């Protein structure tokens, strides 16, 4: 066993000794990522409806918001919130400073939420706009109001069709969460950087972090594959087997 460990170019014993820190990093990463996805999703639903319905007031506002947050890097957004807002004395003296804006965790959550809300808004807007006209016309014919159509027909249909694209957003958000390590948070990458810096290592911390991210992405992909099989079964192409017929000339 010792000969095998000597052959592996990684200090496995050191990684195992500090693996509890990596587990804490996994918790921080998952907590930030999925809480941001939840809050961003809740914000995206009304904004997507405003975009899809071309509301004369809210549509331009939402469109500007999505352009700003989709057109600038998440790292810049996080730095502006974490380092930028503290430059204003009125914010430092407000009730939001001490419990929220002075905390790296809350600043990261706010930046991640606003960023994923912008992407999810445009994703849902496209799914709503692509709702088959037959479904909408059938809902109108049966007396559904606009609000009832949106709640019972259009949104459920859009959510189902958005599942494949939204899986990419979840994975991108997970990968983007590494930015939290740049503002002192000990996420997965942050623990890897700490391990390398503490013991003057080259890549043990980074390789461990990469493996953990890979396993999490694998679980996310499996989960969305299950969702697709369950909720998009009616959209799957049905393969019909051709039944051989007798040759009349035979």
From TrEMBL:
GO biological process terms held by the UniProt record: amino acid transport
Record keywords: Cell inner membrane, Cell membrane, Membrane, Transmembrane, Transmembrane helix, Transport
Primary subcellular site in the record, as a coarse category: membrane
Protein localization: Cell inner membrane; Cell membrane
Residue stretches spanning the membrane: 24-45, 170-189, 201-224
Keyword Signal: no
Membrane topology according to the record: Multi-pass membrane protein
ABC transmembrane type-1 domain sequence ranges: 26-224
GO cellular component, one term: ATP-binding cassette (ABC) transporter complex
Listed PROSITE patterns: ABC_TM1 (PS50928)
Molecular-function GO term, any one: transmembrane transporter activity
Protein family: Belongs to the binding-protein-dependent transport system permease family. HisMQ subfamily.
Name the UniProt record assigns to this protein: Arginine/ornithine transport system permease protein
Protein species of origin: Roseovarius nanhaiticus
């Amino acid at each position: 066993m010792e000969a095998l460990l000597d052959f592996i170019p990684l200090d496995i014993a050191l990684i195992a000794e500090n693996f509890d820190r990596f587990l804490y990093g996994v918790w921080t990463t998952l907590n930030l990522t999925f809480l941001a996805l939840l809050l961003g999703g809740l914000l995206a639903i009304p904004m997507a409806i405003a975009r899809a319905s071309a509301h004369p007031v809210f549509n331009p506002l939402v469109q500007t918001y999505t352009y700003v947050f989709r057109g600038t890097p998440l790292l810049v957004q996080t730095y502006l919130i974490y380092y930028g807002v503290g430059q204003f004395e009125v914010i430092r003296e407000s009730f939001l400073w001490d419990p929220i804006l002075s905390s790296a965790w809350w600043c990261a959550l706010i930046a991640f939420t606003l960023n994923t809300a912008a992407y999810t808004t445009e994703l849902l807007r496209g799914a709503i706009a692509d709702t088959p006209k037959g479904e909408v016309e059938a809902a109108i014919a049966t007396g559904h109001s606009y609000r009832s159509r949106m709640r019972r027909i259009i949104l459920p249909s859009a959510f189902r069709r958005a599942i494949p694209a939204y899986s990419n957003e979840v994975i991108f958000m997970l990968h983007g969460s590494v930015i939290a390590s740049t503002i002192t948070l000990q996420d997965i990458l942050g623990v890897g950087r700490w391990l390398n810096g503490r013991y003057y290592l080259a890549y043990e911390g980074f390789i461990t972090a990469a493996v953990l991210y890979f396993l999490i992405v694998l679980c996310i992909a499996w989960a969305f594959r299950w969702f697709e099989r369950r909720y998009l079964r009616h959209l799957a192409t049905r393969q019909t087997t051709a039944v051989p017929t007798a040759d009349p000339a035979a």
